[in-house]
Every structure is written in C-alpha cells, then in structure tokens.
Amino acid sequence: MGFGGISIWQLVIILLIVVMLFGTKKLRGMGSDLGGAVKGFKKALNSEEDKDQDKADVIEQQRHNLESDLEKSKHKQS
User: Fold this and answer.
1) Count of domains in the chain?
2) What is the rounded distance in angstroms from the CA atom of residue 76 to the CA atom of residue 6?
3) Is residue 5 part of a domain?
4) Domain encompassing residue 65
C-alpha cells in the first residue's frame, strides 16, 4: 500500500498518463509557473508580516513615550 490506498505502481501509471497527455515541456512550464506563483504568494505574506511588525514597533515606541511623559508630569506635580 502506498498513499491513501494507492500503490506505487498506480502512481507510476498515473504519472505516465499525465506525461503522455501534456508532454514534458508543458509540464516543466506548468511547474515553473506554479513555483513562481508560490514564491510570489510567500513574498506577499512576508511583506505583510513586515508591515505589521513595523506598525507594532511604532505603537510600542509611542506607548513608551507616553509612559515617559506621564512619569515626568507626575514628578513635576510632586
């Protein structure tokens, strides 16, 4: 038994049929296109994560500045 009840020989036969239908050049092109799409998707996700981290850093800095200003004003009032 192989993957989910499919034997290795069945996978080989399916692969041969796919190669005969599409040809190796078209399969290679489809693989390249798929790889490029996945790479672009990952790049977009990482870009969004970087933007979110930058926003979080700015908010954290603002919070720190406000706390510092609050402490200064408390000391001035004392």
Assistant:
1) 1
2) 77
3) no
4) 25-77
Q: Where are the alpha helices (DSSP H) in the chain?
A: 8-22, 24-77
Say which amino acid occupies 39. K
Phi, psi of 11 (to 5 degrees): -65, -40
**Which residue is it, tokens 């720190």?**
64
* Cβ–Cβ < 8 Å for 10, 2: yes
In this structure, is residue 49 part of a structural domain?
A: yes
Beta bridge mates, 3: 6
For residue 64, tell me if it sits in a domain.
yes
Q: Which two tokens stand for residue 29?
A: 């092109």
Q: What angle do CA 34, 36, 42 make, to 5 degrees?
A: 105
9-56 pLDDT, tens digit each:
898 999 889 888 888 888 888 888 989 999 999 988 888 888 888 888
